[in-house]
Amino acid sequence: MKHQEVLLLPMPMFSDYFLTLLGAVMKDKKYCEHLKTQHYELNPVWQVNIAQKKYSFNKFLS
Predict the structure, then answer these.
(1) Which of 15, 22, 31, 41 is 20 to 30 A from residue 1's alpha carbon, by CA?
(2) Element (H, E) at 50
(3) How confident is the model at residue 59 (pLDDT cuts 50, 70, 90)?
């Protein structure tokens, strides 16, 4: 394989997803007293999954 760096691409994608889920959980626990937002996730494609705190990787694979 010529371009092995392509194999590194999923690592930041999955870490971003998990850190977003962690931030949403932390917001619901304590920070929602100070932060008043309708959605934690700004990307409309991911707002439903993050609001439900689902571990869904179907959108990564499609």
Answers:
(1) 15
(2) helix 47-52
(3) low
Instruction: Give residue 44's domain range.
Output: 4-61
Output 50-55 pairs: Cβ under 8 A, ≥24 positions apart: 50/20, 50/21, 50/24, 51/24, 53/21, 53/24, 53/25, 55/21
DSSP, residue by residue, 1-35: ---GGGGGTHHHHHHHHHHHHHHHHHHHHTGGGT-
What residue type is assigned to position 61 of the chain?
L
Q: Given pLDDT bands bounded at 50, 70 and 90, which one contains residue 28?
A: confident
Count CB atoms within 10 A of the CB of residue 15: 10
The encoded tokens of residue 9 equal: 């691409």
Q: Is the pLDDT of residue 16 over 70?
A: yes
